[in-house]
Amino acid sequence: MSDDHSPEYYKKKFIPLIYLVGGILIAGTIITFAADKMGIAERWGFVNATIFAMSVAVVKASAVIYIFMHLKWDIKLKTISITLGSTVIFFIGMMCLTVGSEIDSNKPGHEDNTWNHVEQSDPKTVPDDK
Amino acid sequence: METTTQSEAEHDGHNDDHGHGHAEQSFFTKYIFSTDHKVIGIQYGVGSLVFLLVGFILIMGMRWQMAKPNTPVPVLGPILEKVYAHEIALDGQGKTVPIFKDGKITASGYNQFGAMHGTIMVFLAIVPLGFAAFGNYVVPLQIGAPDMCFPRVNMASFWAFFAGCIVMTVSFFIPGGAAQAGWTSYSPLASVIPTDGQTYWLVGMMLLITSSLLGAVNFIATIIQLRAPGMTWFRMPFFVWAQFVTAFLLLLAFPPLEAAGIMQLMDRVCDTSFFLPSGVFASGTEPMNVSGGGSPLLWQHLFWFLGHPEVYVLILPAIGIVTEIVSNNTRRPIWGYRLMVGSLLVLGFLSFIVWAHHMYLTGMSSKVATFFQTTTMIISIPSVILLTCLFMSLWRGSIRFNTPSMFALAFLPMFGIGGLTGLPLGFNFTDLHLHDSYYVIAHFHYVVAPGSIFALFAGIYYWFPKMTGRRMSEYWGKVHFWGSLIFMNIIFMPMFIQGFAGMSRRMSDGGATYSMINNPDVTSGALTDQVMSLNSLITMGAFGMGLVQIVFIVNFFWSIRNGEKTNSDNPWKATTLEWQTPTPPPHGNFLEQPKTYHGPYEYSNPDVDNGKDFLAQNDPHKSMSEEQKEAEA
Amino acid sequence: MEIPYYDKERPDTGLYNGKAGIWLFLASEVMLFGALFSAYVLLRVGAEPGTWSMGLMNQWVGAFNTLILIASSATIVMAWVCLKLNDWKGFRKWKWATVIFAFTFLVVKWSYEWPAKFTHYDVTFVTDQSASKVYTDVLGPEFSETQSEIWQKRFDPLKKDQGSNPAAQVKLKDKPLDGHIVGYIDSNGAEHKVGAAWGMPFWSHAFAWRHDRKNIEKEKDKSIRYDKDGRPVYKEGHFRDTFRDRDIKAIIFAPAHGTWDRNEKQASSGAVKYAEAKHDAGHAHSDGHGHTITIAREDISRLSSYEPAHSTFFATYYTLTGLHALHVLGGILVMLYHLLPVSRRVYEKNPVQYTNRIEITGLFWHFVDLVWIFLFPILYLL
């Protein structure tokens, strides 16, 4: 944080902000934990539960980055948002590619249809090479 | 973290104790545990040149084995039989057999040499030489900084590198010998291989990665924070730009390999199954005794996520050096400086999304393969822009043919061959045929051997006068150059032919098992006599290459003491800031804080009437008014 | 020589050197943990049903650790603000609070959470018959009911969406029985207690005891073959287990969950007594702890404590939390350094520089906290 803030600013504004963010973090933890104990995975389905838990975690993480790591005062909000957003998008893209290449690949027990672009002709009608 | 804060404590110490003169520094703090970026740069340089030689000796052993399988290696063989590691005993009495029995290279010895040749050349020789050595010595000087941003982190970086080198070297002499799963250390082989060499390799890699990370943080922070007044982003020499992008590649691409290394170490030490699928067989008839459920592809993804940016880590500093030398020796500004910087940034970004073109044969779906094929083709565009700009810079220049400039000029076509032969490997349909053949070896060696290494030689010849105040011998430099150029091509050009003929990598007999002589019944597909005879030619080329390097080594050491003295601080008549200080630069680099008034390549500017054909970056031009100068600074 | 901007901000970048450095360092850390998170996703998506053995986590401990780490993150900002206000005493107070929180985190993890897992074992069986022998004959149908609830919980819910209940996709022999190992019986029929090795009762199970070669009795067990190097060749069909090198005919096992509702229970497999109700077995529906059964070695296909080698889930869990814990440890060391008298002198000489150091430490510490904010849901809850 740049030094142009007065001591008054820290006492009046910043310290309450710390308590607020601390509260958000604790509340987020309790919400996630309680939701899990109430069994949201069964009720909402696993994917929705994951989205919920990850959203809470992202909110908590943003609060930490924004206030505790005081990026709010260090660089512009727009820059942070774009950086964080593009990081998330990049990460998701990478995961789609890696996991995608894993899922699509030929696994035992799964039929590999990678090369089946053309309809296969009936093997009986194919003339024997020899 | 710790070191970051401590480095600041160290600055205090400097202010108190060494504020005036440095005579009180002991030998230890001045030359061994030095925090001066120039000393660290030279330490890196010497260390990496030693390992360049070690890596080369390993490949000479391998080439002997390929040309004359199972015959004793001359000179090296008897020595290695005495000192080299022994196989792990399997006879129950603890009797061990040397890996170099009767001076011959066994298959496991060949594998060790192969794996360690790749590891040493990439991680212990070229990266430290191009990035760490030249970067450390030149970057702070070129941007007008007194030192690196965190001098003590810099020292820690070097000693982490040193420790990594020690671990890698020691691994040759432990029972069972060094790592033998290839420099890529593909799992499951690398996870289950019984000798400890692989564990040493992983520990060594951790140390080297730590070193690179500390170095990368330091470089980026230095370039962001310590540029001299007036040194705006587009007044930075292209070499600094190249180092900047390289540092970002190291910073962001190395940690995934560190994570992969941690996981492989867990596989080896704690018996986990990160990379071991269920029911994997190591040997015999029983499946491995592990939980299974891991994915060998995970290792490949993580490794090549590092591996591809790593290629650019090897080549970008080289391009930076070549740019400096080309501009200086053609006495012309670089053609398209901003275009080159833009290409560099695009290259840096794209290098993160092309990695799976190393993995077309893993059974990935055609959609994913198409994506990576497309990005691979796109990334060739900025590479070609860089190369084209350098060629354009030669146009109508009055080229000085001294040793550094000849190495730099040879870099251009050699790197061109390396780059263009990469295109068939980037298309998945041609890669299916060429994958893991000698074609691949020829391709990437054209990029890094006559490419990167030529540029690094050029850099050594170019900055040697700055480091020592003496030039290296021009005559022997040219002998070194012509010899290297000829032998490099004798070595690598035939490999394209072998690769097309279907010769695979990593065969300890040079393909003899699959040759026509040994398979008279096979009608097609066996390696013909012509292809096999190229092995001897390549080996002779490799030994010729070794002879030529002796010229370089002798020239290097002889010139430190006896080279022709340079009469000025700026023997090449260069514009950049490193030539505007005393030779060698003192602790703190500049006698007074330099100010920058111009871009980096003000050569042969007709508007400049200072009686020279160049305008140094810190030279306030006479015809400028004082206000202009202030505004420029 | 003085490095410029080591304590003051450079006007055009708005950063002092240390801050630029730490943010770059954190960027590389993001990539490090990002790669491990990616590995987690990839391994979990690719896992076969029944092999992602989560649901064994102690969620309350995890939540407790999350809360204290969050608290430490808040206290370290308070410490920095106190320095900004030139309040040295306040700074020390909050800094010590941070150190204590961080230390508590590590103590909970390394002295309770991990050791509790190292002493817990999973047994899977060679065939469905040998499994049902234990589940139905020895432990009784009621136990099986309790156990099936546990199986429901511990198999990855991610796989549920792809078909039926994941537990139903797993064969009975691969459904693990979890509990504690109390002892083992050797080929002479003598009972041995599983105790501490090298004076480490908890940790010993996973590592020390496992690799303690002094206890190996090569000659007595002819079922174990040795190669020429003296390394054991594992028995045909026997997967790697904690007792792989030892002369063991049967293990004495206390199931962790479930009830014991028979007064007398015995079953046998060859010469080995299969299960034996101990003297306090009469209490119906009591906790399974303390009641032991005996399982012959030839019925066991795999025996593993909840150590890294147990499954890819535990491998990921220990790698991620272990690496995180190392970061916590590093942070503690740096913070302790900042509380030493030598740091007081730095503060008196150059308060701005010292405050910057605290800020940098704080940035690192918040990052460690951030990693845990993501680790907690993915490892303990989801």
Polypeptide structure, described:
The complex is a heterotrimer of chains A (130), B (633) and C (382). With 130 residues, chain A is mostly helical. Chain A has a domain at 14-77. Chain A has 5 helices and no strands. The longest helix of chain A has 31 residues, at 7-37. The radius of gyration of chain A is 26 Å and the shape is flat. The N and C termini of chain A lie far apart (81 Å). By secondary structure, chain B is mainly alpha-helical. Chain B has one domain (2-7, 43-69, 106-277, 292-562): Cytochrome c oxidase-like, subunit I domain (Cytochrome C Oxidase, Chain A, Up-down Bundle), CATH 1.20.210. Chain B is 61% helix and 0% strand. Chain B has helices at 2-17, 27-32, 37-67, 76-83, 107-142, 151-170, 189-192, 197-225, 238-269, 296-330, 337-350, 366-394, 403-420, 423-426, 428-434, 438-468, 474-500, 529-562, 626-632. In chain B, α3 (37-67) packs parallel to α6, α3 packs antiparallel against α18 and α16 packs antiparallel against α17. The two termini of chain B are 34 Å apart. Mean pLDDT of chain B is 88; it is low at 1-23. Chain C has 2 domains: 17-117 and 312-381, Cytochrome c oxidase, subunit III, four-helix bundle (Four Helix Bundle (Hemerythrin (Met), subunit A)), CATH 1.20.120; 122-305, no CATH class. In chain C, the strands form 3 sheets. In chain C, strands 1, 2, 3, 6, 9 and 10 form a 6-stranded antiparallel beta sheet that branches. A two-stranded antiparallel sheet of chain C has the order 4-5. A two-stranded antiparallel ribbon of chain C has the order 7-8. In chain C, a hairpin with a 5-residue loop joins β2 and β3 (191-193). Chain C is elongated, with a radius of gyration of 26 Å. The model of chain C is unreliable at 208-224, 234-241 and 258-289 (pLDDT under 50). The interface between B and C is large, with 64 and 75 residues.
